Amino acid sequence: MFELYKKRQLSDNLGDTFLFFKNYGKNFLKIFFIINGAFLLLFGIIIYFLIKINFELLKTSGFENNISKEDFLSYFNNNEGLVFLLVFICFFLFLLLSLFNYSYPVLYLKMLSTGKKNFALNTVLAEFTKHLFKLIKFSIGFVFIILPVLMILLIVLFLLCFIIIGIPLLMIGLPTCFTYLNLCFYSYLTDEKRFFESLRHSYYLIKIDFWNTVGTSFIMMLIMQFVQAATTMFFYFVGIFIFLASLMGTSDQNHVESIDPSPLLIAFVTVIVLVFIVISNVLNNIIIINQGMIYYSLEAGNKAESNTIDLIGDHSNE
C-alpha cells in the first residue's frame, strides 16, 4: 500500500515519486490525457488557423517584396476580428488548462490521502470545479505578491553571480524558491489554509528538513531539464529536416518560389507546439508529485503529533 504521510529521506522522496506513477500512473495519466486532449484539440484548431493566417500574409507579400509596415498593419486590420478572437480564446484556454494542470497533482494526492483510489473523471472535475475560485485567488496573490518578491530575490542572486559566492547561492536559491512556492500551494489546497496562512506554514515546513527538501528539488529539476532539453533537440532537428524538405519540394533548379502555406508544414508546426505543451505539462506533473512527496513527508510529524494529542484527549475522557 502506498503511504503518503511518512518521513522520507532524499532517496525516498525521489523513489516514492516514481512509485506513485507505478501504482497510480494509469489512472492519473488517463484522466490527465482525457482533459488535456479536449483542450489541446481546441488549441490545435486555433493554432492551425493562426499559423495559416501568417503564412498567407507571407505568401501574398513574399520575402522578396520586403513587407512594409503599412502592408503588415493593413493585413491584420482587415482580419483583426478573427485574429483577436482566436488569440483571446487561446489565452483563456491556456489559462484554464494551466490552472488544471498545476492543481491536478495536488488535488489527486489530496483525494488519495482519504484512502480512495482509481478516481473517475467526473470526481476529478468536480474537485477541480470546487477549488476553481481558490485557484483564481491564489493566482492573483502569486502575481501581485509572491512573484515581485521572487523576481527581486532572483535578480539579486543573478547579480551576485559576478562574484564567486553568487553561484552556489543561486544553486540553493532556485530550488528553495521553487519548493517554498509549491509547499505553499499544497498547504493552500490540501489543508484549506488561507493565502497568507499558507505562506507562513510553507516557511515553517521548509525549515524542518531544509537540505533534504532543497536537495530533492534540485535533483528532480535537473532530471526534468535534461529530459526536456533532449526532447527539444530531437524535434528541433526533425523540424529543420521537414522545413528543408518543404523548400526543396517547392523549388526547381533555376527558381525558388516564395514560401507556400503547405498543409503538411502547418500541420507539423501545429503538432510540434501541441507536443511541447503535453511534454511540458507531463514533466510539470512529475515535479509537482515529487513536491507532494516532500509536503506529506514534512507533514507526517505534524500528523503524528495531532494523533498523539487526540489519543491523550480520548484517555482523559475515560
Characterise this structure.
The protein is mainly alpha-helical and 318 residues long. It has one domain (10-305). 84% of the residues lie in helices and 0% in strands. It is built from nine helices and no strands. The chain has helices at residues 10-61, 69-78, 80-112, 121-130, 132-160, 166-190, 195-208, 210-249, 263-316. Helix 6 crosses helix 8, helix 6 crosses helix 9 and helix 8 packs antiparallel against helix 9 (263-316). The two termini are 34 Å apart. The relative contact order is 0.13.
Question: What's the topology here?
Answer:
Blueprint: H1 10-61, H2 69-78, H3 80-112, H4 121-130, H5 132-160, H6 166-190, H7 195-208, H8 210-249, H9 263-316
Helix pairs in contact: 1-3, 1-8, 1-9, 3-6, 3-9, 5-6, 6-7, 6-8, 6-9, 8-9
